[in-house]
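Researcher: Hi, I'm a grad student and pretty new to this. My advisor asked me to get structures for two proteins we've been looking at. I'm not sure of the right format, so I'll just paste the first sequence and hope you can take it from there.
Model: That works fine. Here's the first sequence with its structure tokens right after it:
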Amino acid sequence: MTDKITIAQTGFGMFGSHEVARSIECIVKYGVSPFLGRVGYAHLARELAEIEFEMAAVGARSKTSAEKAAEQYEEATGKRPRTYFGETPWENIINDVKPDILVVATPDDKHFNPAIYALKRGVHVLCEKPLALHVDEAMKLVTEAEKQGLLLGSDNHKEYDPDHLYIARELLPKIGPINYARAYLEEPLDVSTSTFKWVAEEGKKGTVYATPFSYVGIHWISLFQNVYGADNAGNRTMTPVYVSGHGQKNLLRERYGIDAIDSTVVDVVYDNGAKVVFENNWITPEEFCGMVVNQGHEIVGANGKIESDQQNRGLLYWIGKNPPGGQQGKLSQRTANTHFFRKVYSLHNSLPDSYSGYGMDAILAFITSAARVLRKNTSPEDVSGTFIDGRSQILPCAVIEAGNASVWKNQDLLKSKLIPDASCKLDINNGITLTFTDANGVTETETIYDGNID
């Protein structure tokens, strides 16, 4: 089949160059069919086997990053995609290449512009999480996609973690309903001091308003909303109504001169009385044993408890100072989560043949659904529920915006030597309001978002 589905990607940072790019490389080389059993769509393998894919273009802010992306794709697939760079590379990509699908892997606060530009011009869009940092942006993206009859997806890979699906389908029905829970995801210090230039460099010029909560807390927020907080038919069983967030500024500001939040603790209360505490940071020391993050959660239900340690999945190792290859190892205990994303080796061959893991699955599910719409005359309505769609992310984006709003208001209150009591009320029909006590002891209210958030 010569009529290939064309994919373009904008953004080629830490995640875009690894899990995103490696997943797309596999799909370009082999199609979607070999991987469909992972996401419950093995029954579509024969039907979709003939569909071919092409990575047509890559875009990045710098020429160096764009060329690096093209080289990586060429090495993996045998064909070099066209390169674009600058402040808005997606515009030339859409206008020149006219891809079927645009994958947006730009920094968290820069998803909206490329996504809306592509949707308005008839291109299906897959965004890295979070879909948006503000509810109004998420609503505009969803509205535009539905108006154009296009797919809008979000790469929230934790919703495909087999442990999470087992918890949702097998355990929660037995221990539920949820009374309270705690979820944590702690990123390495390198992320905020080196890897993410939009934190490490911009934070030395002024305040960085993105937080660890918006960066990685969205994983847990979406999981609790759309997997743990929904029945098997996808109907919502709990809705967030109250959010209170607190952030800490110590290490990044004092030691590295970066004006950014070290860590966040955000409480979310749902309409069924459940309370979940979300803990996130991007200052975990290099010496920590996890490769690469510390993550897990605990759920207490009315009839039992679940503990899920996702940093330690059972593989422990130590490497001494003088391994045979000459590379000095770490002296501390290490763990590896091979379930997330890994090279797949044939049994007696040292060369990797492919990649696999739940880090690939949200991308695979979206591209599979887009392929059915593009080549199999399937309607967007008929693929609803077969991938993580934009509409499912409106409430999680609302919680992220509410959490960040209360985190920063509480920072202001602390600076003024006031009690940091800022919190947000979420109302499905009326939006988000922030409440706090001012210096005169008067309760003040600010509107964060005015409108429907369903």
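Researcher: Oh nice, that was easy. Here's the second one.
Model: And its structure:
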Amino acid sequence: MSESQNLALTFGVDDSALTLIKSLLPGVNFKHHALDIQSVLDLDVKTEPNLVLFGSAKSKVSIVEMVLSMRTQYATVPIYYATSDRGNFNQKELIKNGFTDAFLLPFDQELVRNLVPAGVGDYKSVFLLDIQPDTRLDFDTYLMLPINRKFIRFSSAGFPLEAARSKRLLDHQVSSLQIATADVKKFHDFTVSQLKNISEGEGVSATARRERMHGAIRSLLTGFVTNTIEMTDCTQIVQSYIMESGAPTSSIYEKLLRLGSGGGDSYTHASNVATIAALLAMSIEPASVDAIALAGLLHDVGLADISIEIQSKPESERTPEEHSLYERHAHQSMALVKSRPTPIPETALQFIDQHHERFDGTGYPNKLKGSDILVGSQLLAIADEFDYLTNVAFGKARRSPKQAMDMILSSPGYDPKILTSVSTLV
């Protein structure tokens, strides 16, 4: 790949955000510029960058004017906005004013990681259930080997994915395959043709539904932490996506398998936790289903107030002070949600505040134990841990839903009575 293909121009990106971006895009050559119109006008247009990043530094000239000037220099280059300052962040307005996308860090770090194709960025996760067995495919499929940091071809373009091989994956509780990003359109065309053939539901594949949910939840959470969206919008998301996922069309365990692994980003995690917690609550705590789903969606918004440096460090490398600061995020999430003008059920606030407490007293932030922890809080904690354990990421052992649930069911961190109820569901 040539230098121009690895080049990123930055203008006024704050230090915390820039440090994280550099760690996420190690193969990129960054060239930094002051956030002023002269820096934009003086660019060498003969060397076209792969991407351009603007930040939140103060400038005498409107950032919108600078983006418009940049567009005259590089008409086809994606221009992004990235910041760790949520104070004046408004994703919709930034995109409307010319940015390709706008990222609030560290929430959007997985999206930033895929700006430049490199390894995992070259592939996209799709649901296995969207690929009808024994049907000819126009694209290759791949299986991700997270420990080995590799993708191996599972089926080849021009041939069907045999039913026996598909069943073998499902028997091993693997619910997703990967396709090359260049084949995304082929995949969508394939799923549309399949849905037309079987006339299923609303004519939207499971992968497309996941993408739609991801986009809605991303818009909601970034809007929520920047105070540009109301609590009623959160409730609407819960009803439109989360509760729809919990509709009684199959067993809870089948639903857990179907969640798959769409990536370890904040928005996939929020939707998965909300969905899993709601599924468990329908049988164990039915009176609190809506509150638990809402709490699942918002349980980590307080991470917006924890520094990027602390969040980016492995837990084993954090100092005692950094551990203490990180462990405040559950309470900060609750406080942030409570500060919004539209009221939220008190139980939902408690679920958020307690979702890292543990039955044996080893949790945080308040070291609660036993019956002092609400049932809904424990269901939220189980959902949070289950999604973490089953998330597929490079360098991390792949755990099947059964392996993850077995670990949870043997944990002293949850009420044995609740675990017994969960075990009957899965």
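Researcher: Is there anything I should tell my advisor about the second?
Model: You could mention this: The chain has a mean pLDDT of 83.
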